[in-house]
Predict the 3D structure of the following.
Amino acid sequence: MSGTSLKLPWWVDYALLPLLNLSLALLVAGLVILSTGEDPIEAVTAMVQGALGSGEGIGYTLYYATDMIFTGLAVAVAFHCGLFNIGAEGQAYLGGLGLTLVCLYLDWLPFWLVFPLAMLAAAAFGAAYAALPAWLQAKRGSHIVITTIMLNFIAYALMEWLLVNVLIKPGQMSPETRAFAPNAQLPSMQRLLGGLGIEIAQTPLNIAFLVALVCMVLVWVLIWHTRWGYGVRVVGASPRAAVYAGIAPGRRIIQAMVLSGALSAGVALNEVMGAQHKLLVNFPGGYGFTGIAVALMGRNHPAGVLISAVLFGALYQGGAELSFDMPTISSYLIVALQGLVILFTGGLALMLRPALVRLFGRA
Amino acid sequence: MPPDPLANGQTPAVELRGIDKRFGTVHANRAVDLTVQRGHIHGLIGENGAGKSTLMSILYGFYTADAGEIRIGGVPVSIAESKDAIEAGIEMVHQHFMLVETMTVLENVILGAEGGALLSRHLPAARDRLKTFSRDYGLDVDPDAIVGDLPVGAQQRVEILKALYRGAEILILDEPTGVLTPQEATDLFRILAALRTQGKTVILVTHKLREIMAITDRVSVMRAGQMVGHRDTSATSPEELGELMIGRKLANRLDKAPVRIGAVAMDVSGLSVRDAMGVERVKNVSFTLRQGEIVGIAGVSGNGQNELMEALAGMRRFAAGTVRLGEADITPARPLAPDALRALGMAHVPEDRLRTGLLPSFAARESAILGYHNDPAYGRGPLLDWGVIDRHTATLMQRYEVKPPLPKLRGSLFSGGNQQKLIMAREMERDPKVLMVGQPTRGVDIGGIDFIHRQLVAMRDRGCAVLLVSVELDEILRLSDRILVMFDGRIVGDLLPEAADERQLGLMMAGAN
């Protein structure tokens, strides 16, 4: 046994350690900013202020976090089955297609019917697009990392072709559909809470955020409190033990990936139906990949996914504000900063643990 | 216990004084003293959990002691990590080998001691040294063989070569025979004797009394974290060591009621099993298993026993034959999955505990329902009720003496014996009609072996049909009411234990008949 498995008080493992890692990331980022001749304190203040300092900032932070809760959960579910789903991006994209078809062609239905239908269609398309590599993995042994990466590119190409040639609103240059009818748009949180007499700032934050929270709870119940989730985790931990227990690994792999793909499609709910109200090119915007970092950092636990998704949401929003406030700091630096956070909280997550064991590890 | 004095006043190779180590509430080592003389094979014996592995891990730098002193060749040293131990000439051959299976023997041996960036200059020299070792110690291994292709015994020799190559003077072997066939174990002891002749010091950690008696010069016994005795091997007996180990007298014989054979529980006829490469591993095997009897399958491991068990347990399809289980006929055209077989009253304790029978990374309670997770008693509908499962696991742990009795403790943190007891508990408590058991006591300590054997006999006395596969002849002879010998996928012998002796069985197992 190495030092990493020694017992520490829970708050050290789950609060102090991540906080120290985050501070380290910010420290290194500060040094980088310092080298560009800007004041790092000012920059960090601008970021934190931008992400959490105002109702508007918080709204945007949670709006970004919504996408990452969905993709983070998607990656986590697949991970519990021993699968590395790199294809959340493409699954989200295809999910957008299903959702858009409902929103464009069934918008004569009332909202309370369009909403669940659109959600189902998004989930079904995302799931189907994940089922393909899962089936190849289960039946043919094609490695799911490779197939899901490749299917991302096929999704890009397919969706661009559809948007340019089929779904585009006639008479315009940009490849996007017409705006959805009002009854095919998700109400914003501002409108929802306004109806309850609570005033919040105008942001793209919409009820997809609530759907994400519900999904979080559902995933937690499914993975840890159902026989099905138990089987998924057994397959992930030891396929041989699964066979021994009468759990067919191939079937669980396909089922877990179907669920993963359906969760990825939540991005479409938030972006297409919630924020943009139309399908446009490249709407998943890399959230499928960020979801991998979110899941890893959240240790594939739904609650951890929520926390790290909010952190990443804050980085997105704070970074955007920062490049607005301090134009000398290019947007690439923001990406570098996000990279540092992933590095320290994900890749080097246990770097400081031995030191903390020496400090707190009194049994 | 005072430090162990040495008769001849020579500087000992290893001296541990007052070693103390706690893990949380567990006091793994209390003021342990150990003196190992140079050029000796020193046995360290004790039940699983007695603290031998902790002590050796401290000597090898995996753990740091809370208190105590380590002297190597009379000089106090501080061993904070394995590197320090290696520099002090200490090497460890682990129970689970640390080899790169895709590389050759030579490449594995020089791993970590490559002697420079360019291998081409170094390899011929390494090859020469390897040859010297092979000659001096009788360590026969082809330097260019791929490690993954070698049998277990040869892989272990590679581990020993690796240690010698790095200049080991003191060699720690942790349960080295746990994975070996009797023949391979004999080979190993020959090698250890050669090492002793060449002046190396060997510490042999084991729980097998027979090995201690066969090969060591001196033996130290641990129990519950403490050193309870040091003896010269020539001046002690297995009975004395056994008593020291478990702190009470050991019942030497297993009292078995006369066999009361009932109806046929399982009838296997013409069974043939092929592996993934299409090689026939089980060839036209037929036998009958009746209620109330233990049928033991003896054989050197790798002669088809594993494939036979997996096929019978539904984990592997078979190519030909019929298995009749109760009223059900299982054929290649109509196979039954493991869950269906469980529903028919079959239970299976698999040979590979850590990858098949148990989930080492999960809490014990999750292993306690493996295979029975669809039982309606464990929750309503699709849900699992962990409260119920917790209580169920706690009951199992109490009844089958699993220690520590903590349902939420991770499976890998239990000792081998306790992991096995948990699996046994899970498979036995439903009173199966047929119980298949593979290597039930591999890596299990003496007290645990006794317990497990009694449980198996109790199952038989209750009318269960037990099919036992073991490479331990003692075990087969002790438990079986009928013995089948497997060689090269066939059953080459069918005899009663009264009519069998070890020599005859050994010859059958080697395919000599």
Confidence is low (pLDDT under 50) at residues 1-5 of chain A. The CA atoms of residues 27 and 40 of chain A lie 9 Å apart. The domain at 39-327 of chain A is CATH 1.10.3470 (ABC transporter involved in vitamin B12 uptake, BtuC). Chain A has one domain: 39-327.
